[in-house]
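A student in our group prepared the protein record below, which I am reviewing. Thanks in advance; the entry in question is below.
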Amino acid sequence: MLSDNARKLLRVLFNSNRHDPAKMDYLELLRMSQRDMETIMDALAELQQSDYIEWDRDAGVARVIYAFEPCPNN
């Protein structure tokens, strides 16, 4: 289960890139997610570790692999 910050950032990335890898503008992520830079970097690392995104830190490019968390079976 993703943290709230990671889930919010995943939605922002998905809605801004629509499956196409794109150069991330960190200032735009700050504005859209309303989080600080440390929180964004932690959330990106969490998303990458959980295989929701592919993130090239050096190039600043992220590609969304899974846009949603799987629904738990009720």
Observations:
- The two ends are 15 Å apart (CA to CA).
- The first helix runs from residue 4 to 17.
- Residues 4-64 form a domain with the Arc Repressor Mutant, subunit A fold (CATH 1.10.10.10).
